[in-house]
Specification:
By secondary structure, this protein is α/β, with parallel strands linked by helices. Helices cover 46% and strands 16% of the residues. The protein binds D-glutamic acid.
Length: 273
């Protein structure tokens, strides 16, 4: 489909807040010519403490807002929404392909340590559904998985407090909760947690490998575009639009840390779902 104008349509990416920007960044690095539109549902963050029915409703509304922007593919850059609502989103968004982050995260974990002991740090909702345990068991029946809910890490990441004594103490407390598991890998099963990577690595044992789903998700996106013949073939760099449902200034301040560049509130468009 060389030169097809449809291929210029953006890829839509959403999360409850700024966390999914870790996935957006990986997609941008892997596919720099793609146009991207990101939605952070900051008005309703966190998703991880909500009921499955609320999470599915929020995710469906976020996806519909991105569909209005004419997206050619949707990335659910939120483990919680991927765990709870991926099937529902695939149904409502069809024929637009929908890529979640749990399965790519499980793929990355198994690649990092086959037959390993994995500790998943995630939100309450993701842990309650055992989403990573199921996805890893499908790929590696010999693996051992333990899942630990770490909801306060979402607040730390949104606050921009990814290092220092407070972050270290909270990470240490959560790792103590999972005591006795002695993991080979720690899976960052929430897209907010890569911002705390250095802190988690400093608190964990030296041999532990930290795994996140960002780059494997970018691989899945690339393969989905190739399979559909919808990769953007222009040589010009892709555009990026940032949408949020509340707090443009805060979104810009913390989002800049996730993207590794400074953003101002005027870079963020406020939208209602
Ligand atoms: N970043 C989200 C995830 O990957 C959820 C954080 C939240 O809203 O609780 O699960």
């Amino acid at each position: 489909m060389t030169g097809d104008p449809y291929n210029n349509q953006p890829i839509g990416v959403f999360d409850s807040g700024v966390g999914g920007l870790t996935v957006l960044k990986a997609i941008r690095d892997a596919l720099p010519n793609e146009n991207l539109v990101y939605l952070g549902d900051t008005a309703r963050l966190p998703y991880g403490t909500k009921s499955p029915a609320s999470i599915e409703r929020y995710a469906t509304q976020a996806a519909a807002k991105l569909q209005e922007q004419g997206i050619k593919l949707l990335v659910v850059a939120c483990n919680t929404a991927s765990a709870v609502a991926l099937d529902a989103l695939r149904e409502t968004m069809a024929p637009i392909p929908v890529v979640g982050v749990v399965e790519p995260g499980a793929t990355a974990a198994v690649a990092a340590h086959a037959g390993g002991r994995h500790l998943v740090l995630a939100t309450e909702a993701t842990v309650r559904l055992g989403a990573y345990s199921k996805a890893i068991a499908e790929r590696d029946p010999d693996a051992e998985v333990r899942e630990q809910a770490c909801e306060m890490l979402v607040a730390l990441a949104e606050e921009g407090w990814s290092g220092g004594n407070i972050a270290r103490a909270i990470v240490r407390r959560y790792l103590e909760e999972a005591n006795g598991h002695d993991p080979d890998t720690i899976i960052l099963g929430c897209t907010h947690f890569p911002l705390l990577k250095d802190t988690i690595q400093a608190v964990a044992d030296d041999h532990v490998i930290l795994v996140d789903s960002a780059s494997t998700t970018a691989d899945v996106v690339r393969a989905a575009l190739a399979a559909q013949g919808t990769s953007r073939d222009s040589g010009s760099p892709g555009s990026l639009r940032l949408l949020a449902t509340d707090g443009a200034t805060r979104f810009a301040r913390v989002g800049g840390q996730f993207l590794g560049r400074s953003l101002s509130y005027s870079d963020v468009e406020l939208v209602d779902l």
